[in-house]
Structures are given as structure tokens and as C-alpha cells.
Amino acid sequence: MNAITDPSAALIETAARAAKAAAAELARAPRPAKDAALRAAAAALRATAPAILAANAEDLAAAPDLSAAFRDRLTLTRSRIEAMAAGLEEMAELPDPVGRVLSEWTRPNGLLIRRIAQPIGVIGMIFESRPNVAADAAGLCLKSGNAVILRGGRESLRSVAAIHAAMVAGLREAGLPEAAVQVAPTADRAFVGAMLRAAGLIDLIIPRGGKGLVTRVMEEARVPVLAHAEGLCHTYVHAAAEPEMARAILANAKMRRTGVCGATETLLIDAAIAPSLLPLLVADLRALGCDFRADARARAVCPELPAASEQDFATEWLDAILSIAVVDGVPAALDHIRRYGSEHTEAIVTADAAAAAEFLNGLASAVGLVNASTQFCDGGEFGFGAEIGIATGRLHARGPVGLEQLCTYRYHVLGTGQTRP
Amino acid sequence: MNAITDPSAALIETAARAAKAAAAELARAPRPAKDAALRAAAAALRATAPAILAANAEDLAAAPDLSAAFRDRLTLTRSRIEAMAAGLEEMAELPDPVGRVLSEWTRPNGLLIRRIAQPIGVIGMIFESRPNVAADAAGLCLKSGNAVILRGGRESLRSVAAIHAAMVAGLREAGLPEAAVQVAPTADRAFVGAMLRAAGLIDLIIPRGGKGLVTRVMEEARVPVLAHAEGLCHTYVHAAAEPEMARAILANAKMRRTGVCGATETLLIDAAIAPSLLPLLVADLRALGCDFRADARARAVCPELPAASEQDFATEWLDAILSIAVVDGVPAALDHIRRYGSEHTEAIVTADAAAAAEFLNGLASAVGLVNASTQFCDGGEFGFGAEIGIATGRLHARGPVGLEQLCTYRYHVLGTGQTRP
User: Which GO terms describe its biological process (chains A, B) (predicted)?
Assistant: First the structure.
């Protein structure tokens, strides 16, 4: 379909052209202007909280048959609005990621070459019905000098529109182009497809939501995508683990929050330590409400555990369920992770530095941890201040995606009349 | 189509699985092993030069109706084989891009976070009938720890197979997995389509060739692509340009080699300096065999120049033709570049530092130069030692793609028992 026959393509072209012009202006905006816009947007969120809550109530009323979890994600409260506002103010405090000299060198012919961070351009943010994502994503894009087109879930459109109004108020007050933060002009599902096909108009698509949404985006997109596919994370308790440390780390890695991508889904434990430690680990987790799927060797130690199927080890539970396998040393643990893992985040618990190094060096995962919880895979915990998501691909960025990862680079080459031989 | 009904999909799956296993091994290979493989492959290229030349003669004999330029690209000679071998030996001298600590910081909770360069994984290299690309690409992938599947143009298959044999001999001699460098097992065109759809099996596709090939790859690929789309480069001669420098730079930027992507296609010249300088620039280039397409204001200065159409300014000539437009200062030059350019490489010639800064800051292009030729946009000239291509997208890498750009990163996080609050 072309723009004449496909109204969504025409709409995205108009939106993206305005966004591109705004992005060019935003890319050159000095830090104080961007920070002023963030702070003004935070103030506008607070000032218009009654209107945002009213829009949210309309969204909720229009969709009475939602599940409890869906309703919870869709629902805004005073404190959630305050959290969005505070998040924008925190972004204003972060250093400007744009214009950093990433590296610099001089060639024998005298050319000085500088690699400089710059915004990516126009970002298409496609997310499910969690309206607060609109403020977080808009703020991160603004701070990193990118324009953004927000397309939230259909059930959240009124809430997102109200939040968008506050973001635009912030841009206006700071004298920045209002088209830098846009919302989808239509609830039509075809608009998402048009965004995904908008190569040359949108520079990057970031999907945020469940596996269905992300899979659709990755399959259909003609535009580069920075996506979170799957987080099937492992905690490997090595034979030389300090038992109390292993207990504390596993309980946290599995049960702190079970629905986050950095939650541990599978425990690998060395055969040498399983007889003494596995019963304690299981008891700890059972007390926290966790269920189990164990291989035959783990059931030889703890016969009461339910048996795991092959498929269980390939399952991202996102729930209070732990798969357990007994292994024989680091190479076997790495084999298991290569076979079933998603290259997201894996941890080893060990007091043996050589084993830790062997484990880290053998991993292809975005994040490998030694003696720490897999739940640390998070932009805030990495010190990025905030994150727009976690990337599970191999290109551009891996792991938490913060302001720095929302930038690309360009080269400035300073000469004195050089020509190429 | 699935693997059962599509023989190409089954072939690529087999090849890519072997490549993935080889890539995992290569990612951990120490530098001496990789360098030994490169040097042994160079020796094998020299030792098997007669066989390579014979294969090349068969390729040439099998395709008698090629254009002269095509034949030239396809033809191998003793000196071209020597250049390939020397190129591999030069790569062996370059620093290992894998394992570099890109940054490192400690969090308030004591976690030490390291961002470390690592290979991307399995690269699919799709190129036209220039057999030497096989050696260059295989060498760069090997040095950067990536496995590669090479798919050259149909006319070059025997030549590429003979070069591939030398690369495999090098891997074998160094004790590295032979599946790290593979060639397409079939000349079937459907194999290219299967490579482009091999998401999850191939991590990155790099196309190298004409616009037709690159456009097909960018439109069809379900795998991330690092591509060179277009190089419509500008040289802007500012009012404060030193005239002799402008003459030398423009002649080099346009005429050193007209078929390379960094060649200048359009001259922008300030109205203030055009009356005195444009006739000299035109005379210089005309003496070198260049033709022109000039806007009305340029023709007011040099009436003998042919008139440019709007389309001429949007044309990447890759030939001895120069589009010329007269502009009024930096903002007008930037407007022209934004309207017609491809965000590849642009240069300003000026003695005015403020104008140079204004120009650089206003550009979105991958490379902006001050007082130097646009033909410097090249991996070798940037000091990368060698390049696998030039990237024109916004994600992952921009400009010359060398060993560093053939890497991604991962995080190692070192703790002492930390759990997340």
C-alpha cells in the first residue's frame, strides 16, 4: 500500500516528517533547554493531575472486562503521577548524553578525528496499556535529543493523551519544538503496522510489552528494532559457593519480583554441593511461595520435588516457579545455558575466582554476574538513572538501554587542507 | 516456507548452526591463534595462487558476456592475490578488538560493572562478483572473532571457493574451527533469501555491492543489516575559504576516484566567493575530465555550464559529473544538504572557525570534515587498518566499519553477595 491508499501510511508520514524536523532542532538544543522542558513537564503533570486521572477513569470505564493485572497496569493514581513527575526531574539531573567525545585521535597526515555521541533521530515507541511508559519514554527521548512518536495500547489512549499534553506543555515552556513528542493520531491498529514499515521516516522502533507485541514488532518491522525478546536467566551455584551467600542470592534472584525479565528462572547447582545445599535452597524458596520443576539428579537429593520436562528448562516462567538441574562444573553449566538460555543475564555464586572467570568468559549473555542477584540487570541499578527497556539483540546495545544507548555517533574530522593520495 | 519445504532454509540452518558453534569457540580464541590463522591463510593464498587463478579463469570463461567493468572486478591476478595475502597479514598486526574493557565503574553497593567488547556472532556477507571481498571479509570477521557465511555473486563462485579453501587451511593450521569461515553451499538465488530470513541463526547481514543488491537486502532482511545505502556527498566552499586550498580539496574530493562512496557529488559555494573562485574550480575539474550540472546562480557566473535539474541534486553520480549550487552562508548550505543529501560525508572549506563549527554542529551526517577531502571517509584513512564497508544507517555503527564496529559488548558484574533491595 502507498500513502494514497493507506491512510495510516499518510498519517505516519506526516507525523514522522514533523518529528524529523523537531529532532534536528532537539539534537542541537543545549542541555539547559532540555532540562527546563523536563522540569516544566513534571510541573505540568502535577498541575494537570486531576485531568489525567479523569482521562484514566474514562479509559477504565470504557474497558470493563479487563483482567485484574491489566487493570492494575492501566490504572493511574496520584502517587503514580507523582512518580512520573519525579522521574522526569531525575532525568533533568542526569548528564547530557549528546555531544560527548567518545574517542579522538590524530592521523599521521594531521587529520584530527573525533567520534561524537549524537541522538538517533526519530524513535517509534510502541507499548502496551501502561500509561506511565509514555512519560518515561518521552522524557528519556527528550533528554537524549530524540523525537518520539508514542503509540500506547488502545485501552490507554485517553490517559496517554493527557500525559502527552503535559509533555508538550514542558516543550513549549522551554521553547523546544512541540512535535518532538507526539502521540499516534489514531487508535487504528493499522497505524502500528505503518510505523513498523516507516523505513527512512522512523529511525528506531522500541517495543515494550508482552511477548506477543514484541514478536509482532520483530517480525513485521522494516525499521531497526531495539527489543526485549526473552529473559530466561540462570543462577549457577558452584561447588565452591559460600552457602549463606548462595541462599541469599537465589532467594532474591528468584523471588524479589518474579515478573521481571532479570528474575532467575533456572537454578543450576553443582553435584558436589547439591546434597548439602539444595535442600536449604528449596526450603528457603518454598517458604517464600515458590514451586519447583527438578531434573532427576535434583530429585535424587530432594525426592519431593516435581519432575521437570525438557520444555520446562526452555520456559521463562515470570512466576514463582524455579527449574532446577544438577550439573558437574562450569563447562556443564555453560552447556545448559547455551542450550536453553536467552543470552540475557546469568549469575554464578562461587568463592573460586578461577571458576568465576571461566564462567564469565564462556558466556555470550548480555550480562554475567559473579556473586550477585540476576535482578540487578536494570538501568537504574547499573547507574544509568533510568532505562527505556532492556535489549536482547546483538546489535547497537545490549542489556539496559539508558540515555547513552539512545544515542548513535558521528565523526568530526578537522583538517588543514589535506587531500587523499 | 519452512525448512522442510524450502531446501535453502534447511541449508542455511545447517550452515548457521555450524557457524554458531564455531563463533562460540572463536569468541574465546586467544589473539595468537587468530593471528596465526590469518598468516597461515595468507601463505595458503600465495601457495595456491595457481589454483585460484585457474578457478578464476573458469569463472571468466563461463560468463563471456560481461561488461568490461564487471570483468575487471571479477578478474584475479597474481598481484591481486598478493594484495589479499598482504591484507590478511596486516590484519594480524592490528590489535585484538575482542575483550577490550570499554568502560568500568563501581556502584554505591560495591558492584563493579565492566562493559567488554565481544564478537557479534555469525555474520552473513552478501557481495557481488569481486572475489577479493571474500578474503577481506573473512579476515576481518576472523580477527574480530565472528564466524562468517560468504555469499558472493554467482559469476565468482569458483574463485570464491578457491579463496575459501585458503582461509580454511589457515584456520586448520591454527587449530581453529573450520566452520568459522563458510561459503554458501549452493549458487541458488533462493539461498540469499534464506540468509536474509535467518533471524536467530545469523546475527548480522552485511551487503556489499551496487544499489540493487543493497536495496533488496534492506527490504527483505529479517536479520539486522549494516548497509551502505548511498553516498551523496557535498563539499561546501565557504566565503572565507582559502582559494588554493579549496581548489586542491575539491579536485581531490571529486576526481581522485569518482566511483567511491566518499566522492563529492555536489559543490556548494557561497555567493560571496563564487564570482572569483567558481571559474577556477570549474577549469581545474574540466581539465581533469569532469562534466557539470549547475543551478541558475552558478550559471550566472559561468554561463557555459549545463543547467542542473532538481533531480540532478538528488543524484549520486559515481562518475565524473559535479552538481553545483550557489548558496548564501552556512544555514543555506545545511538546508541544501538536509534536502538532497544522504547523511554520508560532507566537507566545508573555510578559514573561519566559527563557520566550521556551525557547519559541523548542523550536520546529521556520519562524517563531517573541515578543510579536507570527502574521500577520506575510509576505514584505512581513519586508522582502522581495514574496513568491511561503510555504514549509512543510524544504529550500531556509522561511517567506516572496521574491527571495532564488528564487535558488540556484554557486561561483567562482580559482586560480593549483593542482593537487590
Answer: L-proline biosynthetic process
> The domain spanning residue A277 has which CATH number?
3.40.309.10
Residues in chain A within 8 Å Cβ distance of B419: 248-249, 251-253, 256, 372-373, 375
Which CATH number does the domain housing residue B185 bear?
3.40.605.10
> CA A160, A166, A171, A175 torsion: positive or negative?
positive
Q: What ipTM describes this predicted complex?
A: 0.93
Q: Which three cell numbers stand for residue B209?
A: 555491492
Query: Is A330 part of the contact surface with chain B (CB cutoff 8 Å)?
Result: no
> Which residues of chain B lie closer than 8 angstroms to A111, CB-CB?
372, 376, 381
Q: How far is B257 from chain A (nearest CA, A)?
A: 10
Q: A337 to chain B: which residues are within 8 Å by CB?
A: none
Q: Are strands B147-151 and B122-127 parallel, antiparallel or unpaired?
A: parallel
Interface of B with A in 9-68 (CB under 8 A): 24, 27-28
Between the CA of residue A113 and those of A3, A270, B91, B177, what are the distances in Å? Answer: 41, 51, 21, 37
The residue of chain B with its CA nearest to that of A30 is: B361
For residue B413, give how far its alpha carbon lies from the nearest alpha carbon of chain A (Å).
5
Q: Which amino acid is residue B174, in one-letter code?
A: A
C-alpha cell at B316: 549520486
Please give the helix or strand (H or E) that residue B205 lies within, else none. strand B204-208
Mean pLDDT, each 10-residue run in order, chain B (421 residues):
67 94 95 98 98 97 90 95 96 96 97 97 94 95 98 94 98 98 90 93 94 90 91 97 98 96 97 98 98 98 98 96 98 97 97 98 96 96 90 94 96 98 95
At B42, list the grid cell: 595468507
8 Å CB contact of A24 and B338: yes
The CA R_g of chain B, rounded to the nearest whole Å, is 24
Q: Is B121 on the interface with A (CB under 8 A)?
A: yes
Residues of chain A contacting residue B396, judged by C-beta atoms under 8 Å apart: 395-396
Do A295 and A409 belong together in one domain? no
A362 touches chain B (CB under 8 A): yes
Name the pairing type of β-strands A233-237 and A345-349: parallel
SS3 content of chain B, % helix, strand, coil (to 5): 45, 20, 35
Q: Is residue A394 part of a domain?
A: no
C-alpha span between A393 and A407 (Å, rounded): 17
